[in-house]
Amino acid sequence: MAQLAVRSLLLSLLLVSPVVASPGIVKLNSSSTLFGIEFPPFNTAVAATGCDSKLVAADEAGDEQKQPASSSPSLQLRMKHRSAEGGRTRKESFLDKAEKDAVRIETMHRRAARSGVARMPASSSPRRALSERMVATVESGVAVGSGEYLIDVYVGTPPRRFRMIMDTGSDLNWLQCAPCLDCFEQRGPVFDPAASSSYRNVTCGDQRCGLVAPPEAPRACRRPAEDSCPYYYWYGDQSNTTGDLALESFTVNLTAPGASRRVDGVVFGCGHRNRGLFHGAAGLLGLGRGPLSFASQLRAVYGHTFSYCLVEHGSDAGSKVVFGEDYLVLAHPQLKYTAFAPTSSPADTFYYVKLKGVLVGGDLLNISSDTWDVGKDGSGGTIIDSGTTLSYFVEPAYQVIRQAFVDLMSRLYPLIPDFPVLNPCYNVSGVERPEVPELSLLFADGAVWDFPAENYFVRLDPDGIMCLAVRGTPRTGMSIIGNFQQQNFHVVYDLQNNRLGFAPRRCAEV
After folding, report:
1. Residue ranges of the Peptidase A1 domain (predicted)?
2. Helix (H) or strand (E) holding 404
């Protein structure tokens, strides 16, 4: 039975096409449109400092003058979604993606059950000395195969570009490093510490060494001021990284014309042994709540806020993740907030939100309120995660959600019985714009997140099949708002005010 359950989960994504969006699905009783916002202009001026970045022309100067002088400094990074790898079939690509989703969820459940997560001392109030925004572009990598979003980051002195996976569900930043003793295949060279004048190891006597787990066979710290700090970070049975904890300079592009900013002393993992489903990326940029994440380490400079906008799966367009406040996002007419769950959660890494219920077709479903609670052992609860593809709800809630769609759509389109992947699925052959009931999440503080139809239904053309892109997890597991459901929303992590923001946006237009 366990193998069948795992196989079912693995199959859940096989037909979710990474290159076919679902613009032809509309919601019943919905006349709303997606209102847009504009990001600050992006300038990839790091090329002037020796990086192999392509300069992008923009009217930065005029827009910069529009920014309020009191606005927070921010940093922006490039981000894209990556989808099917060249030479592989769609089925092979998504079997890989589904396998990673399944392993990731199992790992997150185990990590959530841990207690006593190490914490770094709280930082002082953020400095407001910088006037630039720190921005990167989030990309849908068309050439590599998985469900994550990728960011270009420049590391070392001189700075060299590396494409890293953006992950709000983990903390450690790491790159594959030379000598690469056991590594997965990546595009471009691995990071070479010997080629960077700013690289230095964290020693085993450094207090930051206590923030990472040692390898399974830890070595003795005989010279605390000299010996390196070994680490082991796991994501699942097939995904882990082992190496030395280190400090390095990360160079990023700024919105000011011709400007770049070097952030020194960023803690990261120099991974010499790395295994897992990372598919061509150079490493991972952790944006979780833990003290070692990139977002946490930058708070003292850029404040306690970061945000991103995820392009559609398979899109070749890029959008941005912003560290620091973005005044245009804050002024968005449809920006809503909901409070994060208490930070005393057993899993400091994850961003928990407090769900109260789910609405389908405008009606609040009959789901017991305790379904959404976090248990004392760390089980349950709801997180928002950029590294999980689909959205998952604990089984009691999922069954009610599924049945609500079946009841409302039974007379509209023929149900495909026993479809071996997502469920329910319908035959919509010949229907240009199928209509589906609205889906919304209701939070405990009254906030409501309304989703466009293409964020929870996927159309599998040319077969004329349309499926609900939501799955169930065991009752003891957690519910997850995945990146498929976050597409075309600007999502704001405001940790100063302990809240999550969301506003509709065509992210490819950013």
Report:
1. 149-503
2. helix 395-409
Query: CA-CA distance, 49 to 52, in Å (whole number)?
Result: 9
Residues 6 or more apart from 442 whose CB is under 8 A from it? 355, 356, 357, 358, 359, 364, 448
d(CA 208, CA 212): 8
Picking from 344, 368, 383, the residue whose alpha carbon sits closest to that of residue 483 is 383
What are the start-end ranges of the H helices in 2-120? 2-11, 60-66, 90-112
pLDDT value of position 99:
56
Q: How many domains does the chain have?
A: 1
pLDDT tens across 109-123, in order?
A: 666 655 333 333 333
Cis peptide before 159 (omega within 30 of 0): no
In a domain, 471, yes or no: yes
Length of the chain (residues) = 510
Tell whether the torsion through CA atoms of 276, 281, 282 and 283 is positive or negative. Answer: negative
Supply the DSSP string of 278-327, one letter for each residue: -TB--EEEE-SSSTTSHHHHTHHHH-SEEEEEPPPTT---EEEEEES--H
Q: Is 187 helix (H, G, I), strand (E, B) or coil?
A: coil
CATH number, residue 25: 2.40.70.10
Amino acid at 416: I
Full domain range(s) for residue 207: 2-34+73-109+125-509
> Does pLDDT of 21 surpass 70?
no
| 321-344 per-position pLDDT tens digit | 888 888 878 889 999 999 999 865
Asked if the structure places residue 115 within a domain, the reply is no
* Higher-pLDDT residue of 40, 401: 401
Cβ contacts of 172 within 8 Å, gap of 6 or more: 212, 231, 233, 241, 268, 269, 284, 286, 292, 293
What is the C-alpha separation between 141 and 158, in angstroms, rounded? 26
Amino acid 344: pLDDT: 57
What positions carry a catalytic annotation? 167, 385
The verdict on residue 117 lying in a domain is no
User: What would the two tokens of residue 4 be?
Assistant: 């069948």
End-to-end CA distance of the chain: 46
Q: Which of 499, 490, 500 is nearest to 38 (CA)?
A: 490
Residue 45 placed within a domain: no
The structure tokens listed for 120 are 């770094």
Residue of 422, 259, 289, 423 lying closest to 353 (CA atoms): 289
The whole-angstrom separation of Cα 460 and Cα 422 is 11
Label residue 94 left, alpha or beta by phi (over 0 means left) and psi (-120 to 50 means alpha).
alpha
